[in-house]
Design goal:
Layout: E1 3-5, H1 14-29, E2 37-40, H2 42-51, H3 55-61, H4 69-84, H5 90-101, E3 110-116, E4 132-136, H6 138-150, H7 155-164, E5 173-179, E6 185-190, E7 200-207, H8 211-215, E8 221-226, E9 232-236, E10 242-246, E11 253-257, H9 260-263, H10 270-287, E12 291-298, E13 301-309, E14 338-341, E15 343-346, E16 349-357, E17 371-374, H11 382-387, E18 390-393, H12 401-409, E19 413-415, H13 420-423, E20 429-433, E21 438-441, H14 452-456, E22 469-474, H15 480-484, E23 491-495, H16 497-501, H17 507-514, H18 516-534, E24 539-542, H19 548-552, H20 572-578, H21 580-595, E25 601-605, H22 611-623, E26 633-637, H23 640-644, H24 646-651, E27 656-659, H25 661-669, H26 687-703, E28 706-709, H27 717-726, E29 730-733, H28 738-757
Parallel strand pairs: 16-17, 17-18, 18-19, 22-23, 22-29, 23-24, 24-25, 25-26, 26-27, 27-28, 28-29
Antiparallel strand pairs: 1-2, 2-5, 3-4, 3-5, 6-7, 6-12, 7-8, 8-9, 10-11, 12-13, 14-21, 15-19, 16-20, 20-21
Helix pairs in contact: 3-4, 4-6, 17-18, 18-21, 20-21, 27-28
């Protein structure tokens, strides 16, 4: 048989109907409210490719180096064409159509969902790997089934399975065909806290179909319910601007604006919350493991659309951390054992042998656990920084390369010591304190030192749910795992320049020696690492923004312009528009990533001044094959000119504007942020800077453009308070500050809610 009904499916039918099908069948059998439907079995797919004789060719086509993005693209195209161009056997066609005609009244709208045999497993979710189609009718049903089969070989799916070690020829795919619930409201429910496992129900809810919540295109209401008392502990009501609905005329799934009177209205009634709590208890009891549930409400009835195990709950610690010993310098840090002092740029305590690095060829001498001591770090030092236990620099401030990268890697750092390379001796055992900004002689006990990824993982039991999104800054792909561990809502800034500078050559020299394809592949590889780690959470990627003095340090740098003040010179979008041969390769990398299925990427252009810059960049996007109407893209607000011209920028079609406070501050106050002589007057909270930011946020709210901040100031409580008061859409914080910012945002939002009803 080509199809089986959900009524007849159970959890042990995984090989027959895949993870999603098995889960829905199990829920149906348990008497839970699941919309009716059937499954085109995994065996039907296997028979299809084997009987048609395309199986060997199919699996041979996808046996490629998954780090070779061009080969990956070709593999996907070959596999897709093989499946879509092969006719479906007549008996299979008729059985699927007969089953469809038995759903509803025979002309129902259905959801067609992929259900691979390697997904929704206890230790691997594989969520989002294959296709889902909504509001499908008989006319398109068979093609949608084949599209689901073909999606087993999307670029992203091939890459992901290779990384996870799942052989392509051992994974089959079933297709769930289920009556659509024309949801009035929908969302997701966790039966335990997804990070800590705390015994509470967390529900996210929005108007319309659930795709908007799952994909992250709408900020949903959030409800935290105690499993012990059944009481709603917190209810955060979001500004729900859009909803996903079925168009009555075309039958297609479309995005519509939420009516003004419902945007701030609470989605779920008390009765619906109680019903979801009841269903959550039932489904967890049935599976005997915490569940991630998709649900929908139609005409007062709550339906369960999907349930999978929560795979993100961390193992409980053996004991409570002693707060007095948690990342705090001891009293001895103020004593005679302090060798040098600087700025505490990246928190934590680490001990190791000082390794003095004055030339790049000294980096080979840096062993695992050493302390790098150098004048200032550069991007090509990142591999050694990953090996190091800590970083000490003579020069630099809180926004220097050493500070930013160290924070993201979770490596303690002390910068701006002035003479660390002269005062410390090579091979000397020292302890650096990235909180206090000190370097002490001798070694700290091992138990007092930190583990980078685990230190990023929140220690507080509950992630604060906020209407304002809290994202994270990522400078280098290597930090993506640590950034994702924070539980942030996405990446507010991923910098391309660190990927490019790490090549050790200017873009022009690298392309000259290795070719355009190799350059595109380098960008694709780096961005993909972060996009994969966060999927489906959004990752906002900034195109190249490196001053000429940074390029001059690289091979080929002798051709760079010599500028008196590179921070005011040939950088950002002005460089990209002036040298489109390199800029278009960056955009080709984005297009390649979109084609691979990374629809969570957003493109951001740096250092724009006016609408002309934006319109020219937009045209380059089109030429690269990126549709600006379908992809999220926007600009950095780093100059007073950009802030003052925000209406014109919005008219040019941007989806978002993100404040780069590091540059906006220096350009507004005429303060070089890397100049220690004027560091004391560098102030992101200066009234002039705040006025530019506040006016821009207000204008963007009026014209429907999202706003965010991705500069270092986004981690400061006073800036957070100001931004939330003004109505910013999101705040992107440093990795080590995400949880603090989440709590601060929640506190300000609650105050605003109280003020509005008093």
């Amino acid at each position: 048989m080509a199809v089986v009904w959900l009524d007849d499916v159970r959890a042990d039918d995984l090989d027959l109907v895949g993870g999603k099908g098995a889960s829905l069948g199990e829920l149906t059998g348990a008497g839970l409210p699941v919309p009716p439907g059937f499954v085109v079995t995994a065996g039907t797919y296997r028979a299809f490719i084997e009987d048609a004789g395309i199986d060997d060719e199919l699996f041979a086509a996808v046996e490629v180096d998954h780090e070779d993005s061009e080969a990956l693209q070709a593999a996907h195209e070959t596999a897709h064409d093989l499946i879509m161009e092969t006719p479906m056997p007549d008996d299979v066609r008729e059985e699927i159509l007969d089953a469809y005609r038995s759903v509803g009244e025979g002309d129902a709208f259905v959801a067609v969902r992929s259900s691979a045999t390697a997904e929704d497993l206890p230790d691997a979710s594989f969520a989002g790997q294959q296709e889902t189609f909504l509001n499908v009718t008989e006319e398109d049903l068979l093609d949608r089934v084949k599209e689901c089969w073909a999606s087993l070989f999307s670029e992203r799916a091939i890459y992901y399975r290779n990384r996870k070690g799942f052989p392509h020829d051992k994974v089959d795919i079933a297709v769930v065909v289920q009556q659509m619930v024309d949801a009035e409201k929908s969302g997701v429910m966790f039966t335990r806290h997804p990070s800590t496992g705390k015994k509470e129900i967390i529900i996210e809810a929005a108007w319309g179909l659930g795709e908007a919540v799952v994909s992250g295109t709408v900020s949903p209401d959030n409800y935290v319910i105690s499993r012990e008392t059944g009481e709603v502990e917190t209810a955060t009501i979001a500004d729900k601007k859009t909803m996903c609905v079925r168009d009555e005329e075309s039958g297609e799934t479309v995005m519509r604006d939420v009516p003004n009177d419902r945007r701030h209205e609470r989605v779920l009634t008390d009765d619906e919350v109680s019903r979801l709590l009841e269903l959550g208890e039932l489904v967890e009891d049935h599976y005997e493991t915490p569940q991630d549930v998709e649900w929908a409400v139609y005409e007062g009835e709550v339906y369960m659309l999907q349930s999978r195990p929560i795979t993100t709950i961390a193992e409980a610690d053996d004991g409570e951390e002693d707060e007095s010993d948690s990342g705090r310098s001891r009293a001895a840090a103020t004593g005679d054992d302090v060798l040098i002092r600087g700025l505490g740029a990246s928190p934590g305590i680490a001990s190791g042998r000082a390794r003095i690095v004055t030339k790049l060829d000294h980096l080979d001498q840096v062993a695992e656990g050493d302390i790098i001591v150098t004048e200032m770090t550069m991007p090509d030092m990142v591999p050694a920084m990953k090996r190091a236990a800590g970083i000490v620099t003579d020069e630099g401030g809180m926004t220097s390369h050493a500070a930013i990268v160290s924070r993201e890697l979770g490596v303690p750092a002390v910068v701006g010591t002035g003479d660390g390379t002269k005062t410390l001796e090579d091979g000397e055992v020292v302890t650096i304190d990235g909180d206090k900004g000190t370097v002490r002689e001798g070694e700290e006990p091992e138990e007092k030192q930190r583990q980078p990824v685990e230190e990023a993982r929140p220690k507080t039991p509950v992630k604060p749910m906020t209407a304002t999104e809290v994202k994270v800054n990522v400078s280098i792909p290597e930090a993506a795992e640590r950034a994702a561990a924070t539980g942030a809502d996405g990446v507010g800034l991923l910098r391309i320049e660190h990927m490019v500078l790490t090549l050790g050559k200017t873009p022009e020299r690298f392309i000259e020696q290795n070719g355009e394809r190799a350059y595109v592949d380098e960008i694709v590889s780096g961005v993909r690492e972060a996009a994969e780690e966060f999927y489906p959470r959004p990752v906002r990627v900034r195109t190249l923004d490196a001053p000429t003095d940074e390029f001059r340090q690289l091979e080929g740098g002798e051709n760079e312009p010599r500028e008196h003040n590179p921070m005011l010179g040939y950088r950002g979008i002005r460089r990209g528009l002036d040298n489109p041969s390199v800029f278009r390769l960056e955009l080709q990398a984005f297009r390649r990533l979109f084609d691979m299925g990374y629809d969570n990427l957003e493109v951001m252009f740096p250092l724009v001044n006016d609408a002309e810059d934006v319109l020219r960049a937009k045209e380059h996007m089109r030429e690269a094959g990126i549709d600006p109407e379908k992809r999220e893209w926007g600009v950095m607000i780093e100059t007073p000119a950009a802030a003052l011209c925000i209406e014109e920028l919005a008219d040019a079609g941007i989806d978002f504007a993100s404040f780069g406070t590091n540059d906006l501050t220096q350009y507004t106050l005429a303060v070089d942020r890397n100049n220690e002589h004027v560091a004391d007057i560098y102030d992101e909270l200066h009234p002039a800077v705040l006025k530019l930011i506040g006016d821009t946020v207000e204008t963007c709210r009026e014209v429907g453009v999202k706003t965010s901040i991705c500069g270092q100031a986004g981690s400061k409580p006073k800036m957070v308070q100001f931004l939330v008061d003004k109505g910013v859409s999101s705040i992107s914080a440093n990795i080590d500050a995400v949880r603090d910012v989440q709590h601060e945002v929640k506190r300000v939002e609650q105050r605003l809610l109280l003020d509005s009803v008093r």
